[in-house]
């Protein structure tokens, strides 16, 4: 993001800050989609602003993805084998000017969208840009969750921020221009010990921070950092949170999802509990209409679509590959027509509501049928994160996972080393032949988590119409 002149001490964020009449430096991506008023020559009335409703473009019409930008991370030669900087999630900013990503053992990275993609369609022969991190926050420890401020606009610096929660640390708010720490929100347990939140989420107005802990849900006022909060007791840890209007869904590691109604003063009233996943719930998202909820879990190959009006059983079951405990993100387009998800096999799956009505009820007992609309093999490693641009037909995908050392190869290396020390050439040749045979078998049944060929990257893809195809 471009540098703007800012004061060193930034005041706490308030709901009125997004409505302040401040001068805007530079272009804003949102301004490109607001139609200017046209003068009416047939009347003598004053010109009034009449912005038209922006229609979201059609996605995946050409069944082709064009790579726009990419960025990758690799482990240092001096680093230990257990230190692997792989991507663990990416999210577009609400105004669409930049993308925030979490890299394991390397903190937070902020990447800007190239200016030529703000309002134009790229040609098919466009040169792939190498993304550089304009802001890098080097955070130690495991980051549990992160979230953008919903009123973020690059024209108003005070709204450009995000929050994170990580291991052994409070909820922290970071500045999106210089990566500085603005403030923190601390939750304490019954013995007055600070405990980290497992999940964080802003409400839609941006006035409150909803944080999920092991036994409680705490609500912080954005303009009052510190340890002032209201809490609501829960029966199981809140692993993820999704909100829409006055509805809130709280997923847990015990495979359940709890629905709550949130009133104006921030009190929670339980609506019901949903069962259906085979693992801990890791990610949820409401559709734009707020009627349906999509949920995914760890080591669960199913995406469950729920109708919150009849939440006793899933409305639909979608299939994807999830062979890992880490969170595998999915996303719903702003128009509500497309559901996109990655998988541990590196394949991007797309469900189009016009071709495959994933919002309608099907036989939920038949979960072996793959009713996906499109499949795109984009990555050689686990595609653990996807994010659709809020205004443009651009998709951000992230790949990577922790790779273990194959125990079979470790045994073979020890056998080679022992035989070489003994100097038994005959037996060495025999075992070498056996090792070749073992490696062939291992290659046929290789697991991606044991592969040494890792891919840790963030890639932007054009998923709309192209000017020309060559």
From TrEMBL:
Keyword Nucleus (UniProt): no
SMART domains, sorted: WD40
Pfam families: WD40
WD repeat start-end pairs: 274-309, 333-352
Species, as recorded: Loxostege sticticalis (Beet webworm moth)
Domain of life: Eukaryota
Protein name (record): WD repeat-containing protein 79
Family named by the database record: Belongs to the TCAB1 family.
Entry keywords, A to Z: Repeat, WD repeat
InterPro entries (alphabetical): SWT21/TCAB1_mRNA_Telomere, WD40/YVTN_repeat-like_dom_sf, WD40_repeat_CS, WD40_repeat_dom_sf, WD40_rpt
Stored PROSITE patterns: WD_REPEATS_1, WD_REPEATS_2
Protein's UniProt keywords contain Repeat: yes
